[in-house]
Design brief:
Elements (H helix, E strand, L loop, with lengths): L2 H19 L18 H15 L3 H16 L25 H14 L6 H15 L33 H10 L4 H8 L6 E3 L7 E3 L5 E3 L6 H10 L9 E3 L11 H7 L6 H5 L4 H12 L1 H15 L23
Antiparallel strand pairs: 1-4, 2-3
Helix pairs in contact: 2-4, 2-5, 3-5, 4-5, 7-11, 7-12, 9-11, 11-12
Pfam family, one: peroxidase
Main location: secreted
Cofactor: heme b; Ca(2+)
Length: about 325
């Protein structure tokens, strides 16, 4: 081989290795699987549609699942790993659902495209499709994430938002992930679908001497508070849930923001948003324009699902089964 040509080829190989091992959201692409698994999005969409048609709670569960994944170790499907001391064992994650949807999609894809598509990408696609299935906007997401190998319960609490957080605490958590106040308000709008356990907002009520629940949070609209107290009565079980949006619970729309302005935010963290002037201005704007909310949702969802992505082989892998790291 000519010496100059050999040197050039060696340089190309070195640069190729550098590009493969570098890790950045810029390494992602909507066409990442165009040659290796061209029907991956169809596989996921059909799986989400099947499960959601049979269980109306699935879309909300998938949306919450991807949020809890991305906020902790980045969007690497670490929340899907089972086992002692994993993220799934933290109390904040015990009520998560939708795992079977991701696993079913993964099994199908492994048959059609073995060892190609990550669980992290499947989860992002499933959450994206869940929003569209319930009437929300269609969002183009980039793909190419690797699955993480680490899942620790101890990483959950320092990174996830608690329902008792103030606006300042929520904004600080979001800022640490590269997300803005607008992203906080927009992504909180995901509460337009889904359910919440009574225990998630029990701190807004207390039991009186007769054992009945009474509101201690005066920001809750009176009739809404009465409805919640009936559904979450003293004899309600730990599994009792209520819709996050009492008006259009199964529709992804801008009703959530109207609810906030009328004192019908379910979680304390929801109601807290109206206490910040910038957040309240956004809430008012989104309540008046669903198109504005949908446009902002597309942007914020893409940002959120790009947090801490792993693209290099030294950082992650393509799991064979989503619930466990490769042996």
């Amino acid at each position: 081989m000519h010496q100059g040509l050999g040197t050039l080829l060696a340089l190309v190989l070195i640069l190729s290795c550098i590009s493969v091992t570098s890790s950045s959201s810029s390494d992602l692409s909507p066409d990442f699987y165009a040659l290796t698994c061209p029907n991956v999005q169809l596989f996921v969409r059909n799986t989400v549609s099947f499960f959601s048609t049979n269980d109306g709670t699935i879309p909300g569960k998938l949306l919450r699942l991807v949020f809890h994944d991305c906020m902790v170790e980045g969007c690497d499907a670490s929340v899907l790993i089972q086992g002692n001391g994993t993220e799934r064992t933290d109390p904040a994650n015990l009520s998560l659902g939708g795992f079977d949807v991701v696993e079913s999609a993964k099994r199908l894809i492994e048959v059609m495209c073995p060892g190609i598509v990550s669980c992290a990408d499947i989860l992002v696609l499933a959450a994206r499709d869940a929003v569209e299935f319930t009437g929300g906007p269609s969002v183009q997401v980039s793909l190419g994430r690797k699955d993480g190998r680490v899942s620790l319960a101890s990483n959950v609490r320092p990174n996830i938002i608690d329902t008792s957080f103030s606006v300042e605490e929520m904004a600080k958590t979001f800022s640490s992930k590269g997300l803005s106040m607008e992203d906080l308000v927009v992504l909180s709008g995901g509460h337009t679908i889904g359910l919440s356990h009574c225990t998630s907002f029990s701190d807004r009520f207390q039991k009186d001497a007769n054992g009945s629940m009474v509101p201690i949070d005066t920001s809750i609209e009176k009739n809404f508070a009465s409805e919640l107290m009936k559904k979450c009565s003293a004899n309600a079980t730990a599994a009792t849930t209520v819709s996050c949006d009492p008006v259009t619970p199964n529709q992804f729309d801008n009703q959530y923001f109207t609810n906030l302005l009328s004192g019908k935010g379910l979680l304390k963290s929801d109601s807290e948003l109206v206490n910040d002037p910038k957040a309240e201005a956004l809430i008012d704007s989104f309540s008046k324009s669903q198109n504005s909310f949908f446009d902002s949702w597309a942007e914020s969802f893409v940002k959120m699902t790009s947090i801490g992505v792993k693209t290099g082989d030294d950082e992650g892998e393509i799991r064979i089964v989503c619930s466990s790291a490769n042996g």
